[in-house]
């Protein structure tokens, strides 16, 4: 009687041969059924896993294992379509990447610069350094020689004034 290890090696070799010979055709078949590359790959993988778990099918020979594999793949596709997950999921469309218009960017920068000039110097300084230069509240407090609470307060009131100025120009929602 052959050892378990020898049976497993034989089984693995047979499965590898079936995969090499039939996986591309199986993927094309499932791709036609589903219209989805990723789902087709998942179905092929599931079908091969089921074949791995049914070693008796491999012992029946090449034509039988091919037919069994294609039948299993078809059934997996049907099960997927009938599943509750499939009915609940809404296919998502990836939105097209919008490219920003350089004119829009220039106008936005111009408006922001104009509005920033209307703020007090203290508010403008903390906003520009925090949001444009990436400085932390602690760094700002140290450089401006004021407490961190003062920096936070200037940021809060400065951003509020900035938002109000943009609203007055009709550029943000109220």
TrEMBL record:
<keyword id="KW-0804">Transcription</keyword>
<keyword id="KW-0805">Transcription regulation</keyword>
<comment type="similarity">
    <text>Belongs to the sigma-70 factor family. ECF subfamily.</text>
</comment>
<keyword id="KW-0731">Sigma factor</keyword>
<dbReference type="InterPro" id="IPR036388">
    <property type="entry name" value="WH-like_DNA-bd_sf"/>
</dbReference>
<dbReference type="InterPro" id="IPR013324">
    <property type="entry name" value="RNA_pol_sigma_r3/r4-like"/>
</dbReference>
<keyword id="KW-0238">DNA-binding</keyword>
<dbReference type="Pfam" id="PF04545">
    <property type="entry name" value="Sigma70_r4"/>
</dbReference>
<dbReference type="InterPro" id="IPR013325">
    <property type="entry name" value="RNA_pol_sigma_r2"/>
</dbReference>
<dbReference type="InterPro" id="IPR007630">
    <property type="entry name" value="RNA_pol_sigma70_r4"/>
</dbReference>
<dbReference type="Pfam" id="PF04542">
    <property type="entry name" value="Sigma70_r2"/>
</dbReference>
<dbReference type="InterPro" id="IPR007627">
    <property type="entry name" value="RNA_pol_sigma70_r2"/>
</dbReference>
<dbReference type="InterPro" id="IPR014284">
    <property type="entry name" value="RNA_pol_sigma-70_dom"/>
</dbReference>
<feature type="domain" description="RNA polymerase sigma-70 region 4">
    <location>
        <begin position="116"/>
        <end position="163"/>
    </location>
</feature>
<protein>
    <submittedName>
        <fullName>Sigma-70 family RNA polymerase sigma factor</fullName>
    </submittedName>
</protein>
<dbReference type="InterPro" id="IPR039425">
    <property type="entry name" value="RNA_pol_sigma-70-like"/>
</dbReference>
<feature type="domain" description="RNA polymerase sigma-70 region 2">
    <location>
        <begin position="20"/>
        <end position="86"/>
    </location>
</feature>
């Amino acid at each position: 009687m052959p050892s378990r290890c020898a049976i497993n090696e034989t089984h693995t070799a047979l499965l590898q041969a079936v995969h090499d010979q039939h996986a591309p055709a199986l993927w094309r078949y499932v791709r036609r059924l589903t219209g989805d590359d990723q789902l087709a790959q998942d179905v092929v993988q599931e079908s091969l896993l089921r074949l791995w778990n049914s070693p008796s099918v491999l012992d029946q020979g090449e034509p039988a294992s091919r037919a069994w594999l294609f039948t299993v793949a078809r059934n997996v596709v049907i099960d997927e379509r009938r599943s509750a997950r499939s009915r609940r999921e809404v296919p998502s469309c990836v939105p097209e990447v919008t490219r920003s218009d350089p004119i829009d960017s220039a106008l936005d920068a111009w408006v922001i610069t104009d509005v920033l000039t209307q703020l007090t110097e203290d508010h403008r300084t903390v906003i520009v350094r925090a949001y444009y230069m990436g400085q932390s509240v602690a760094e700002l407090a140290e450089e401006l020689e004021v407490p961190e609470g003062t920096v936070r307060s200037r940021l809060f009131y400065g951003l509020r004034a900035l938002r109000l100025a943009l609203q007055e120009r009709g550029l943000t929602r109220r």
